[in-house]
């Protein structure tokens, strides 16, 4: 996606990346979309059937676990698309983190994320040998939640990974698309 003068055409590059991801995730395969929806509903039903486990997971979110998770990000980690630097959260006093703990616990217990946490900026980074790599810049609070719940999320993912889940351990998106 280069212009005649050799400059990059951002919209053409974005369209090319969108098409590649669409093929990877089979977005236009109605059967695959329906199978994914059914599997997600089934998983949600299983999780909701065990509110005690959900509550136990939510209780892992504490002031100390938030601070520890915030400190675990490198000092030069990117600022999230919400404008919050994760390391700055570690410096907040406990009294400032208590409402954040309550908020993040409610996300886990209700199994609903606010739309603001679902925002992501897709950035195309140039590769040294040509081409581009797509990265997502996520909201800091979402990244923090994932870091705090990393262990339980990995356990859950291992138990409930779907056959077509290209993000499951031992899978690779390009290999899955090729089969």
Sum up the structure in keywords.
179 residues; mainly alpha; two-stranded antiparallel ribbon; 2 strands; 56% helix; flat
> What is the end-to-end distance?
28 Å
The 3D shape can be described as flat
**Percent of residues in helices:** 55-70%
Please compute the radius of gyration using only Cα atoms: 19 Å
The share of residues in extended strands comes to 5-15%
Number of helices: 9
The residue ranges in which pLDDT falls below 50 over 5 or more consecutive positions are: none
Taken in chain order, the helices and strands follow as HHHHHHEEHHH
Structural class call reads mainly alpha
Describe this structure in words.
By secondary structure, the protein is mainly alpha-helical. A hairpin with a 5-residue loop joins strand 1 (121-126) and strand 2 (132-137). It is 56% helix and 7% strand. The longest helix has 19 residues, at 30-48. The mean pLDDT is 77. It has helices at 10-24, 30-48, 51-58, 63-72, 86-90, 94-110, 140-148, 150-160, 173-178; strands at residues 121-126, 132-137. Helix 3 (51-58) runs antiparallel to helix 6 (94-110) and helix 4 (63-72) crosses helix 7 (140-148). The chain has a two-stranded antiparallel ribbon. The two termini are 28 Å apart. It contains nine helices and two strands.
Secondary structure layout:
Blueprint: H1 10-24, H2 30-48, H3 51-58, H4 63-72, H5 86-90, H6 94-110, E1 121-126, E2 132-137, H7 140-148, H8 150-160, H9 173-178
Antiparallel strand pairs: 1-2
Helix pairs in contact: 3-6, 4-7
């Amino acid at each position: 996606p280069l212009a005649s003068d050799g400059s990059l055409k951002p919209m053409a590059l974005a369209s090319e990346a969108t098409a590649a991801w669409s093929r990877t995730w089979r977005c236009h395969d109605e059967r695959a979309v329906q199978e994914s929806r059914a599997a997600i509903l089934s998983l949600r039903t299983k999780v909701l059937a065990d509110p005690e486990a959900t509550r136990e997971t939510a209780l892992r979110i504490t002031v100390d676990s938030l601070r520890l998770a915030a400190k675990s990000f490198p000092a030069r980690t990117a600022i999230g698309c919400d404008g919050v630097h994760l390391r700055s959260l570690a410096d907040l006093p406990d009294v400032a983190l208590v409402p954040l703990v309550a908020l993040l616990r409610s996300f886990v217990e209700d199994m609903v994320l606010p739309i603001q946490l679902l925002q992501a900026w897709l950035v195309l980074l140039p590769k040294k040998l040509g081409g581009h790599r797509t990265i997502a810049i996520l909201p800091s609070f979402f990244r923090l939640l994932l870091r705090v719940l990393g262990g339980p999320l990995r356990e859950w993912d291992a138990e409930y990974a779907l056959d077509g889940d290209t993000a499951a351990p031992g899978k690779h998106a390009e290999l899955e698309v090729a089969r």
